[in-house]
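Same chain as my last thread, 453 residues:
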Amino acid sequence: MRTLIKRVLLRDEPCDEIHIAGWVRTRRDSKAFSFLEINDGTCLANLQVVTDAGIPGSDELAAMNTGASVEVWGKLVPSPAAGQKWELQATSIRLVGGVPEDYPLQKKGHSAEFLRSIAHLRPRTNLHGAVFRTRSRMAFAIHRFFQERDFVHVHTPIITASDCEGAGEMFRVTTLPDEKISRDAEDFFGKRAFLTVSGQLEGETFACALSNIYTFGPTFRAENSNTSRHAAEFWMIEPEMAFCDLAGDMDLAEALVKFLVREMLEHHEGDLAIFEKFVDKGLRERLEFVASRPFERISYTAAVTLLQQSGEAFQYPVEYGLNLQSEHERWLSENHFKKPVTVFNYPKEIKPFYMRVNDDDETVAAMDVLVPGIGEIIGGSQREERLDVLTENFTRHGIDPEAYAWYADLRKFGSVPHAGFGLGFERLLMFVTGMANIRDVIPFARTPGHCEF
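reply #2:
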């Protein structure tokens, strides 16, 4: 069985029998031997392979160009070259898959736009290999965070008849031909069905039975926002906690952000170094900034006052009753408080029906966590647990109570205060990698006008 290059490079002792496989990054030839840099994607570093002329398979060396896949057998020995601990003295080599001259990933810089057009090949680049290793490890860290705190992982539906946010910007799922699209009763589910925008509502049902749960899955929004921060398909982490108020919700959200930032700083040194070198030279400093400082908490009303008094010429207006924009959120965390910020208690008119109405009857128990470089990374709230108030919210938002009868049942049968939030996984990845565009932290981006692969 082959040994992964990541494990080879971590060895403490040489070895007489090593079998590796991977892709050629570079090849340098001399008269008696060749140097191959081999990478198998398990880490950023390559393993240098020295192949003497005449070993089995050396007659195919000329075809082992950048991008070619190879298998190598040999001896792991200390490397005399600076900057690398080991090299592999090949005893046998085999060309597995060659590449033609038009292989698009040569040893040079490639633009992000070009790499998006060949998303099936871009994981082979150093930068995107680091991005998607980070994505995998961050997903594992998220599960670890919640499992260590006795949260139950719940799989909520991808196909739903509920619109969590009430925005109506959803992808319809149908088996009907175009000429019958309006005949809902004839459709597969006997009603209109959509791709989910959130697993929150279904998650609440499980929190009201299992206490603390979380979901981690794909969500979809048919929002025509072709920006660097929006995608039509993205992943969300949505915990929900029974017997929890807004303060407890903010505590968990802030703890999760700090946990994931420390995970990046303490366990991803190799990939963090490439982000710091090629993407954002201030990345490590910003992550350490978040990891080492307590979060500031400020009400929406007070935040609006600060923004209005700032003297800044914002592109978007700052008025009570309007949503904060990214530039406002970043000013609060980067310029004013110089630390992560949690904004809470928003006007009820700009928030969804499920958020708990505060005693002032003007605001709801909602919160957003803001971090430098991104702005909002988490949004959440205490949920409305009172049946009479929820019923009033249905009316105020123009929602059919029959469609949400099951949701109202949670308030009829053993209702409890409960709260939760949503963390956009891609937003998190943008934050910890410094990548500026959401299209570059998701394997195959779905955005307005684009659904390749």
